[in-house]
User: What shape does this take?
Amino acid sequence: MSLLRVDSLSVQTSDTVLVSNLSFSLAPGERLGLIGESGSGKSLTALAMTGLLPRQLDASGSVLLAGEEVIGGSDRQLNTLRGTAVAMVFQEPLTALDPLMRVGKQIAEPAARRAKRDGTPIMGGALDATVIDLLLEVALPDPQRIAQAYPHELSGGQRQRVAIAMALACKPDLLIADEPTTALDVTTQAEILGLLDGLVRKRDMALLFISHDLPVVANTVERVVVLRRGETVETGLVADVFAQPRHDYTRSLLQAARSFDDALGGKR
Amino acid sequence: MTDITLPSPPTKAKHTISLTFWGGIVLVGIHIVLALLTLVWLPYDPNAFTGGRLDGASLSHWIGTDRLGRDLFTQLMIGSRIALQVGIGAVAIGALIGVTLGTLSAFASKWLDDALAATLDILIAFPTLLIAMLVVAASDTANLWSAIVALGIALSAIVARLTRILVKRVLVMDYITAARTSGSSWGKIVFIHILPNIWPTLSVNFALQFGLAVIAEASLSYLGLGAPPPNASWGRMLQEAQGTVYSAPLGAIAPGLALVSLAIGVNLLADGLRDQIDPTRRNR
Assistant: This one.
């Protein structure tokens, strides 16, 4: 059975269709990339899958997450899926962390909730230890000190590691990473990608990796879905799509990535 | 994997207390001390005629006496207590109603939110003092509590409108969506993310409201709608000193200064407090 099955999902405002007729599925432990330029409806898709679309947007079609229908589901019912079946990492780690809460506490919050849902509540010292373990798992140095820090006291890369630790604290079956490296510099990008890749494999999580950047996705995922203006233009194994892009749009994305690389290479 | 070690967070942010904060602590502190002192000790019975009429400052009467020969400093001390009672009471009531209403409004469906916002705008358009006078007039006997409740209700509209805007601003932040995706309930999000994040701005506003409430109570008392005698409110002292302001100016200057110093003190305190609460503003 697939962990996530999206079937003719559409998202629209009262007068515009933002995502139309999107279908794909994701098996447990599988890694899928959702590719497209900005405004192609990738992030909306992610929100729709967790039932968190803004009120003024409508979703139709079907999203089955861990066997439960998300579209039209009640908030109470969806809330039990969020932070259990699915967790999310966002693009901009500075705004995805509460500026006034110490990092350790922000990780402890979902960790405690997940433990409570599993029927094994943890608190106090055990919770602190869990937080430190999570900080170590995302390879943050000096976790005791980081746990006491506020987000603004950390670097961009460190913040994103904290955000990943928060997602891991949920022990999700599916991790949605919404452009997790876009706000970071190239070196940090590579580190975060490596970290995500390792964690997903180690914990055997499914990964939905959302990005506008084909090369970034290529090494992390097995299959890709290419979106353009809310419509699926191409889908398939990464190697196939890269080697023989069937659609002009995919070709132009690849071309853009290549010429960018060439330009960088030329400067070096 | 190697990690690029960037500046590690300071082990413990060193708290520096700004001059503003100290100023606020001192000014408000003086009033708190005077107010607490009245509970156990007063220089004179506030209603006893202990000196000559309109005496100037002397060792036995530090800022003189009123036209009936009652000690002004005693009245001033009681005035401090009443001002603090009114300020704290009105802001507490205003905050409770205002923050609740504002938060609900921010979460409400569009038409309900619009209706609430319009109601608040109309309420705010009425001068605070006018609303307070209406509430006091509606209650049978004018007493301190009716004034406090009246001011609290008048202030709640301002607090509600501010809260609504602040909550809406926080609601669109990624960390709220992040909390939602990790399965946090709205109730929890309000208490652990939203309220702490709007608190720095709200607290400063509460201080402004505190100052407004103190001044409004003085105005109500000045008009005879505040605390009835023997409660010596600064407003009533000002009103009584009005006729003799040329012959005995201290009778008007002293309560006036007391009023201004408390209002300024609370504002300084709030400014300092915001810097203390908000970790991103510390050490600037």
Residues 9-13 of chain B have pLDDT under 50 and may be disordered.
